[in-house]
UniProtKB/TrEMBL annotation:
One Gene Ontology term, aspect cellular component: membrane
UniProt protein name: RDD domain-containing protein
Organism: Mycoplasma miroungigenitalium
Annotated keywords: Membrane, Transmembrane, Transmembrane helix
Origin: domain of life: Bacteria
RDD domain ranges (all copies): 10-184
Places the protein is found: Membrane
Length: 223
């Protein structure tokens, strides 16, 4: 069986794929927020939970369902023709959940905080969420909502720092692998692959001039 080799993608290919996925999810989420939250004169329980459910559905569709049917690749990776290779392979769904946890994990956790921490009679406060800093420091805000807002702000800041460090690792390492790659056990590579024989054919032997070395023989005298 021929062993196939894959080359790790460059920083800019990875960054562009992540930007495509992030922008696509953000645009859809903003449209959902405007449809279910902002456009309503009075926010109802049905509108609020519909927004949370649709957000989770879009999140799982982009980062779990699409990769499941496209060999672990997100839309950004499909567009740029790159893929994920697992260095710790398990079954298919576990591979997708593990390698894409930075994408779906944060939003799922935030949604869980809203579901568990926001009471149905407190939903009217959500419609006034224009600035996160004002929302956190609002003295009229119930304690549980203020606590949730602080947790979300902390998680978002931590997620941003980890992603920044991940990109720094990619730029600094020779093999273009970041923190997520090393911890979660995967590589981001080009779809184009090479066989060992093809790589050997690319090796060119270049003649190298060697200076002649003078060799002097000494005759030993025997008594």
């Amino acid at each position: 069986m021929t062993k196939l080799l894959h080359k790790n993608v460059t920083f800019w290919h990875r960054f562009a794929a992540n930007i495509i996925d992030f922008c696509l999810f953000s645009i859809i989420l903003i449209l959902l927020y405007k449809s279910f939250i902002i456009s309503r004169q009075k926010l109802t329980v049905i509108d609020w939970y519909s927004f949370l459910a649709m957000g989770l559905l879009i999140n799982y569709s982009l980062f779990i369902m699409i990769p499941y049917f496209w060999n672990g690749r997100s839309l950004g990776q499909i567009i740029l023709r790159i893929q994920i290779l697992n260095t710790k392979p398990t079954n298919k769904i576990l591979n997708i959940l593990r390698t894409n946890i930075p994408s779906w994990g944060l939003y799922s956790l935030i949604t869980l905080l809203f579901l568990c921490g926001v009471m149905p009679w407190q939903i009217d406060f959500i419609s006034s969420l224009n600035d996160i800093s004002n929302f956190i420091n609002d003295p009229n805000l119930p304690l549980n909502l203020r606590f949730i807002a602080r947790i979300i702000a902390t998680l978002s800041g931590f997620w941003s720092i980890i992603n920044l460090l991940n990109y720094c690792f990619i730029l600094a390492s020779k093999n273009r692998r970041g923190i997520y790659d090393r911890i979660l056990g995967f590589r981001i590579v080009y779809i184009k692959h090479y066989s060992v024989s093809q790589k050997m054919d690319e090796i060119k032997l270049i003649p190298h001039q060697v200076n002649k070395t003078e060799i002097i023989f000494h005759e030993e005298e025997h008594e």
